[in-house]
Specification:
Distance between the termini: 48 Å
Bound molecules: adenosine-5'-diphosphate, magnesium ion
CATH architecture of the largest domain: 3-Layer(aba) Sandwich
Mean pLDDT: 90
CATH superfamily of the largest domain: P-loop containing nucleotide triphosphate hydrolases
Shape: elongated
Helix content: 25-40%
CATH class of the largest domain: Alpha Beta
Number of domains: 2
Amino acid sequence: MSENMENIIEISNLTKYYGSLFWKKKKPSLCELNLAVPEGSIFGFLGPNGAGKTTTIKILMNLIKQSSGEALVLGFPPDNIEAKRLIGFLPDAPAFSPYLSAAEFLNICAKLFGIPSAIRKKRIAEVLENVKMTRHAKSKLGGFSRGMTQRIGIAQAILNNPKLLILDEPLVGLDPHGRQELKDIILDQKARGTSVFFCSHILSDAEKICDRIGILFESRLLCAGRLDELLSETGSKLHINPGRDDIVKELLSAATETVKRPDGGWELSFLKKEETTQALLATKAKYGDAVTITGFRESLEDFFFRKIEEATKSRLEETL
Ligand SMILES: Nc1ncnc2c1ncn2[C@@H]1O[C@H](COP(=O)(O)OP(=O)(O)O)[C@@H](O)[C@H]1O
Ligand SMILES: [Mg+2]
């Protein structure tokens, strides 16, 4: 690992245009991305289809070259062989030879990684155990479900005891049980000291396992940071006692969500903004015990769609 490494991944002004110079697309598929991923974290790189997640991962894995900007993985440029040995990678929709058994396939991978023959068998048994596939060791990959294939994909990625795991949509196409198992495998990797960078458009799963996230939308990063900080106290709720519809009417237009409770009272939600905080405090001063204010945490899903909506609005304004 590079001695002056501060972050396991460091990306600055990374931009990618597909196509040759002459036929170059007008819009970049990745635009001026800046991102730092500290060691030891599970980082969720989130965004809708076509946002540029796979493009970023391909640059990190040296499968394609950026048009401009820089990426450092474990302190090294992506084409560094030393760094490659410390990275485990699960590509988007992996396709493995259907005629190989799980153990045969992992044996080929282990040889490619240069794992000495004396410990190869033991290591393959260990990773199969890690991904709960021991009893399928001798089964052919062609007969595997999407979930089993994904687990074998993870098994090959962790064969080499990587410092960093890069996973492209590891949870896609799995049923809830399969997703849970895969999340447990990712958490287990973190507990062993491996940093994980994965991309996903499944937000509820990301919320459960990530320490940090970044949201990419139409080639640009909207925000990145610690999940608990991004979601902390993003809004306030005002609880209004039954029989006080007069207060509800006064605040209705500013609320993002209005819910009538079974007891006839109301619950109004507000996003945290300077003006709304002032207005809510004024309401409390005016109506006293008839209202109660509490803070609330947005779900990652609400946060994600709010950020995307804000970005869509501001980009639309830019083009007008
Ligand atoms: N090989 C390619 N040639 C041309 N355009 C591409 C290529 N790969 C991806 N793109 C385009 O780049 C954008 C980002 O794609 P991608 O990185 O695959 O997004 P994501 O993984 O977030 O769904 C999309 O508009 C996609 O059509
Ligand atoms: Mg993708």
